[in-house]
Amino acid sequence: MKGKMKSHRLITENLSSRVAESYRVVRTNIQFASLETQVKTMLVTSTAPREGKSTTAANLAIAFAQTGSRVLLVDADLRRPTLHKVFRLSNPVGLTNLLTQSVAPEIALRDVGVPNLRVVTSGPIPPNPAEVLGSSRMRDLINNLKQSFDYILLDSPPTLAVADAAILTAFVDGVILVIAVAEVSMDKARKAKAQLQGVNAKILGVVLNGLESDSREDHHYYYYYGKPSSN
Ligand SMILES: Nc1ncnc2c1ncn2[C@@H]1O[C@H](COP(=O)(O)OP(=O)(O)OP(=O)(O)O)[C@@H](O)[C@H]1O
Ligand SMILES: [Mg+2]
Fold first, then answer.
1. Which of 54, 156, 168 to mutate to test the pocket of ligand 1 (most atoms within 8 A of CB)?
2. What is the CB-side half-sphere exposure of residue 170 using CA atoms within 13 A?
């Protein structure tokens, strides 16, 4: 891949309609999962690094915004934040500034040119991400933002590496687990699922991401929609 910048691909750019369609299918399934209990806030995570969490979170947020819902996508991966790169934004202010209340929300809620979508980048990375994300400030912030948006999606670090994602599940209605089919063993995936269920996460669905390590071109997303479970 020498000299070639690999970028995250968005369904608003020229991705095949099949890929866009698969995100719409995931979106629709999540909407069905919220018939009984309302799902407004979602965490997107995976077991291992680079399984496609950020790509999935961004495209799913776009797919929700395309229905006319007001959507907020938040980079809650304070270990390896990427949403600013995905949307080609600068990252001087973001989530961490909102948490320390050093900026007004309007400044951190960025317009990315997609109607109905706002993105909050990570902001400066703190030395203690887990504590920051698990703080009552974080809970209050999500609750406040819920007043202004129909859906809030949080991007996060992988579950097996750090506790951040498990901690964040306490503040969201459900979790979307991204699994890179070629790279993660079923054993690890099961472990991640058990870990999330151990903290009472409601797993809304599992996105099987068809990326392969050698050639990352033209691999599509497939999904498996698991029955929503509360524990
Ligand atoms: N289905 C796919 N087809 C092709 N490339 C993909 C696919 N999904 C992700 N990628 C690419 O793989 C890389 C990793 O994706 P992404 O950043 O979304 O993963 P991540 O799980 O968020 O990683 P991290 O653990 O670092 O946060 C990116 O370069 C992205 O463009
Ligand atoms: Mg990521």
1. 54
2. 13
Does the CB atom of residue 219 touch ligand 1 within 6 A? Answer: yes
Angstrom CA distances, 48 to 42, 101, 158, 191, stand at 19, 32, 5, 11
pLDDT tens-digit series, residues 34-69: 888 889 999 999 988 999 999 999 999 999 999 999
Lay out the sheet containing 117-120: strands in order across: 110-111, 117-120, 71-75, 151-155, 41-46, 174-180, 203-209, 221-224
Per the structure, how many domains does the chain have?
1
Query: pLDDT for 152-191, tens place per residue?
Result: 999 999 998 899 999 999 999 999 999 888 777 788 788 8
Task: Read off the CATH number of the domain in which 138 is found.
Answer: 3.40.50.300
CA of 53 to the centre of ligand 1 (A): 7
Output 120 or 198, whichever has higher pLDDT: 120
Tell me: the pLDDT tens digits for 119-140?
A: 999 999 999 999 999 999 999 9
Q: Is residue 168 part of a domain?
A: yes
- From the alpha carbon of 6, which atom of ligand 1 is closest? 29
| Domain with 56 in it | 17-224
The answer to whether residue 39 sits within a structural domain is: yes
**CA 83 to each of CA 24, 27, 118, 187: distance values in angstroms, whole numbers, following the listed order:** 20, 19, 12, 29
Query: Cβ-count burial of 68 within 10 angstroms (0-12 exposed, 13-18 middle, 19+ buried)?
Result: exposed
